[in-house]
Amino acid sequence: MNSDTPIRPDGKPHWYGRRKTHKLRPRRQQLVDDLLPKLRIADPDSDTPIDLSAAFDNADADVRLEIGFGAGEHLLGAALKDPDINFIGCEPFINGVSALLADLDEHDVTNVRLFDDDARLLLARLPTASISKIYLLFPDPWPKSRHHRRRFVQRETLDTFARLAKDDTEFVFASDHKGYVAWTLAQVLPHPDWTWTARRPDDWCDPPEGWVETRYEAKGRKKGDEPAYLTFQRNPRASNNV
Ligand SMILES: C[S@@+](CC[C@H](N)C(=O)[O-])C[C@H]1O[C@@H](n2cnc3c(N)ncnc32)[C@H](O)[C@@H]1O
Fold first, then answer.
1. Half-sphere exposure of 64 (CA within 13 A, CB side)
2. What CATH number belongs to 26-41+55-234?
3. Ligand 1 neighbours (beta carbon < 6 A)
4. pLDDT in tens, 40-72
5. CA of 91 to the centre of ligand 1 (A)
């Protein structure tokens, strides 16, 4: 959370995004009422630490996290491609959550759990060194300078990601907003726990292997907005510094 993030009376950080646009169709509403409670990794209103081994059928598998999954195209693709990996998807926009629920239901996906609220509330409750990959794909760019503090990538977020990440965990960031890409590099490159994995000058042009295009990405591409893909790796902890 940022030092200037407004705090609500209930002690939680203020969130600037949308929770809902249009009313859900009856089938989607039914999935939100019936399936979401079964897949919810934790009650957003509680503060208790999350026990990941109790959250998934396969307690020993690696856990990957996608923040702000939108309608969940990338998350669904990743979960289908790697059924032996556990995934947590986080998205407060309930129309997007309901779209993913329909896909998870249709494909009988069992390795995904959801958090339908601000990711910062989730991150604070996850165990240290528990996450093996973090995706932040096309986060809201907040283009005006006075809103840059609302961007998800901040020094404090990177510190939290570093706490949650296992050694060598990758943090994958994608955006078609040049200002946000530059901002992210400026935040991550000096950070002591993260290293950009780029090998070639044009490395950022190519999505990571096995990539599934997101809805937002496809929309931008139609308008001619070329995305950048940045992959950072968590530096190994010193043996006495967990
Ligand atoms: C521009 S959309 C991109 C969605 C999706 N990743 C894609 O590429 O299609 C950004 C998403 O981030 C979500 N978001 C914004 N702030 C968030 C937060 N604090 N925690 C979790 N999700 C957040 C929004 O609800 C929105 O769905």
1. 25
2. 3.40.50.150
3. 15, 17, 67-70, 90-93, 96, 118-120, 137-140, 214-217
4. 999 988 999 999 999 999 999 999 999 999 999
5. 6
